[in-house]
Write the structure tokens for this entry.
Amino acid sequence: MTVEFRQLEVAGSWEITPTQFGDDRGVFVEWFKDPTFVGAVGQSLNLAQANCSVSASGVLRGIHFADVPPGQAKYVTCIRGSVLDVVVDIRVGSPTFGSWDSVLLDDVDRRAIYISEGLGHAFLSLEDGSAVVYLCSEGYSPGREHGINPLDPQLGIDSPTTSRSGEPLELILSEKDTAAPSLAEASASGLLPQYLDVREWINGLD
């Protein structure tokens, strides 16, 4: 077995730790393997799009999510640098609604995180040039993609205050993420996915 899965506190998300094979030439990692993934998660990852995002230290991206159906599942790793990757339960009616969990993704342990449909996703870059790559089950569709303000005090996400090198972090958000609604505002406006609808959709996937 070359990867180890650990289910996170938010149901529908996993931390994935690969085995690294190193010698004097460098390192080889199988960071995604479908049979192992299906055995741990219970479904295949339908690959529709692959993204790469490079961020300066302090850049905070998210919290992003997509309408369900079809949603957008993500399998994320950091190939250079380091980020704190966060999954948020935004499914109305979920037993853990409003909770979050995080995984440190970096170029040392080379972990990944899987975030299934209906969950919110964000990450904070901990050094300049952090490169995050993610496999997506659906392509980008602006009309069905939304955001929640990652600094919403109701969520209380505990973000690092220092970079990987120990320097103070100054958060940098896009205008869109800064203007995003709080969790309560998004829920009141009917923007958030419903827990039972998400479960029904995922159970119907091959």
